[in-house]
């Protein structure tokens, strides 16, 4: 069969989930191509490929774009439409929102999609395939999830070639990404992991980690085939159940490329930091989320003290690693003074980059239920009209629109203000203005600049131009052209 994976925007990072599915399908004898719909000639190229299956990986917000896109494509092409990704896992009722959605994948998709398409190809009954909600002759068949994939080494490496065939700018970027593990045991209220773990209760380990040897084998292949001077390890929590000694030894000797990873502060100690640095780690992302005790631990359920976070940052800096914090403002029940505690924590620790998000209570998360219970969502907000981005606006109710605008604008200057606290009085004047596109663009480009200073990847002039180009294309195609639910 021919399977077309379709993205509604120009991707600015490799969609590794799609790349994993693609290689599984290729290994099973199928033909697979990847398409980005904003590109010139998209529909003609899709028709020329002649897909039997249209496949989409979606998040909340993005689900609206992909549903509309799929309906347009199905008017031109006769095919089966399959959807997966976080939105489908936590809102499988999405299948009922369009007669052109034939299947919804819940949870892990690798073996689920292979089994389903094998049955379809052999014209066998497929409505009882695990991990799927399926439409057949007007009826929806709902199936449970299968056992979780615990041996991640058994999976083939993600197929980057199909991504790069469509998006050559990602090929030319020297920054490459890898997933070393799956699953997180923590219960942050804004995150999908708590519900995901409940979905798979009794069906496998919460956290599964690839072996260091398997990780190195993939990276050696990447190093041999593509431009590659910096690595981002995109795990929620890197090395949760990994042998740091073995990884440091192998990575240092066989890859030798600087990398960045995400670490939860309570899992860091001096020994781990020394081993990370030995391996080649130059920077760490670490979620602070909030400097206010109530917001951090009661609302966001982080279970972390300021002392733990402070000690982790000090240890990282002691050993020369750059620190990229992640922060959330505009939380339910948060005052501007509480948000200032988050800002001050970052300023006081001189972090290299303080990334900031506006709280978006995605459907299915604990924070969404908290907002519903306490009537903290704007009137009329539901799963189908929530903003697709936590960089633009907020659907949380505030005391007044003036207060809300203050949070939205402060978010746009958060990273800048952290690095330039002397300019804070000027920023306080600016955030009194109405939210506007100039502030959005300033935020996107300033944050991109700060990230470049944290990563400090080796770029040629050509690489640099390519990276800037792909990020501009992503901003325009995803945020500006498709987010019709944002007032911006």
CATH architecture of the largest domain: Alpha-Beta Horseshoe
Question: Could you give a short account of the major beta sheet?
Answer: 7 strands, mixed
Number of domains: 2
Q: Could you tell me the number of beta strands?
A: 15
CATH class of the largest domain: Alpha Beta
Detail the poorly predicted runs: 483-488
Fraction of residues in helix: 40-55%
Portion of residues in beta strands equals: 5-15%
CATH superfamily of the largest domain: tm_1862 like domain
Roughly how many Å is the radius of gyration?
22 Å
What is the overall pLDDT average? Answer: 92
Principal-axis shape equals globular
Give the strand order of the largest sheet, numbering strands 1, 2, ... along the chain: 2-1-3-4-5-6-7
Total of DSSP H or I helical runs spanning 4+ residues: 19
First-to-last CA distance: 42 Å
By helix and strand content, what is the structural category? alpha/beta
Question: Outline of this structure?
Answer:
With 488 residues, the protein is of the alpha/beta class.
């Amino acid at each position: 069969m021919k399977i077309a994976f379709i993205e509604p925007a120009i991707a600015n990072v490799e969609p590794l989930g799609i790349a994993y599915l693609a290689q599984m399908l290729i290994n099973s004898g199928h033909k697979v191509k990847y398409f980005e719909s904003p590109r010139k000639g998209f529909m003609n190229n899709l028709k020329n490929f002649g897909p039997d299956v249209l496949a989409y990986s979606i998040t909340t917000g993005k689900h609206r774009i992909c549903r509309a896109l799929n309906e347009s494509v199905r008017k031109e092409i006769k095919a089966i439409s399959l959807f997966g990704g976080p939105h489908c896992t936590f809102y499988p009722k999405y299948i009922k929102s369009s007669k052109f959605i034939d299947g919804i994948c819940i949870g892990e998709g690798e073996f689920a999609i292979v089994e389903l398409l094998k049955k379809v190809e052999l014209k066998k009954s497929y409505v009882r395939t695990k991990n799927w909600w399926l439409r057949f002759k007007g009826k929806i068949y709902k199936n449970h999830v299968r056992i979780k994939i615990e041996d991640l080494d058994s999976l083939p490496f993600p197929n980057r070639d199909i991504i790069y065939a469509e998006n050559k700018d990602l090929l030319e970027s020297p920054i490459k990404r890898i997933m070393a593990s799956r699953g997180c045991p923590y219960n942050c209220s804004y995150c999908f992991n708590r519900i995901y773990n409940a979905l798979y209760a009794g069906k496998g380990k919460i956290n599964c980690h690839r072996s260091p040897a398997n990780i190195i084998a993939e990276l050696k292949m990447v190093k041999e085939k593509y431009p590659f001077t910096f690595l981002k390890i995109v795990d929620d929590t890197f090395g949760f159940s990994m042998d740091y000694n073995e990884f440091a030894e192998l990575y240092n000797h066989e890859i030798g490329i600087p990398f960045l990873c995400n670490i939860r502060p309570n899992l860091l100690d001096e020994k781990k930091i020394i081993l990370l640095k030995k391996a080649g780690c130059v920077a760490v992302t670490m979620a602070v989320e909030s400097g206010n005790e109530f917001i951090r631990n009661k609302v966001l359920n982080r279970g972390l003290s300021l002392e733990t976070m402070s000690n982790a940052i000090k240890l990282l800096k002691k050993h020369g690693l750059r620190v990229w914090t992640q922060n959330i403002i505009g939380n339910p029940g948060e005052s501007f003074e509480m948000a200032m505690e988050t800002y001050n924590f970052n300023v006081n620790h001189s972090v290299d980059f303080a990334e900031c998000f506006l709280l978006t209570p995605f459907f299915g998360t604990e924070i969404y239920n908290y907002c519903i219970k306490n009537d903290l969502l704007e009137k009329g907000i539901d799963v189908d009209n929530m903003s697709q981005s936590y960089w633009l606006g907020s659907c949380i109710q505030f005391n007044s629109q003036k207060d809300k605008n203050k949070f939205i604008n402060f978010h746009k200057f958060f990273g800048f203000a952290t690095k330039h606290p002397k300019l804070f009085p000027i920023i306080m004047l600016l955030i009194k203005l109405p939210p506007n596109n100039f502030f959005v663009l300033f935020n996107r480009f300033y944050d991109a600049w700060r990230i470049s200073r944290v990563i400090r990847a080796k770029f040629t002039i050509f690489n640099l131009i390519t990276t800037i180009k792909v990020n501009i294309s992503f901003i325009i195609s995803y945020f500006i052209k498709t987010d019709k639910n944002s007032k911006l």
